[in-house]
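Morning, I've got a small favour to ask if you have a moment. It would help a lot if you went through both lines with me. I owe you a coffee for this, so here goes:
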Amino acid sequence: MRLRESAHAVLTDEGGAILDERTGRWTHLTPSACAALLLLLSGSTEAQAASGFAERYGIGAEQAARDVRMVAGTLTARGLTANGPAGAAASCRRWRWWR
């Protein structure tokens, strides 16, 4: 997973946030959501990230997979990932004239 070019993350073990440059809004992350995102951004697949997440938090593989999938899905739905929802790219192009 990759964040969109205009999304800037501040990630720590205590939590984090992502600034969406297009809207000026921050998306705040819990420490566990931040850990899941760090695993996803490290270039690992969603399954590898879930495995690392399960190991870190001592939870079952199915729960870890659901948690990682939820973080990835939420960020994608908000248009913060490079593979965001279809409408996000069109919306960005529509408003590019003001930049």
Q: What stands out?
A: The mean pLDDT is 86. The two ends are 26 Å apart (CA to CA). Strands lie at 7-12, 15-20, 25-29.
